[in-house]
Amino acid sequence: MANTLLYFVLMTVFLLFSVFKIWWETANKRRAYTTKEWLDKAFESGAALLNSYRVR
């Protein structure tokens, strides 16, 4: 019985935190980039190019 109760409590907390995180990010309009957009941003900054030309 104790194992079932512990499992139920842990799953409830996990679900509440998951729902809260989704609600928080939706309310704050956090931008989710696609892989292509993320790569474009990385190469526009020049950081990715600089890292590829390091002296080895």
TrEMBL record:
At the top level of its lineage, which domain of life is listed? Eukaryota
Q: Which UniProt keywords apply?
A: Membrane, Transmembrane, Transmembrane helix
Instruction: Give the transmembrane ranges.
Output: 6-24
Q: What is this protein called?
A: (rape) hypothetical protein
The scientific name of the source species is Brassica napus (Rape)
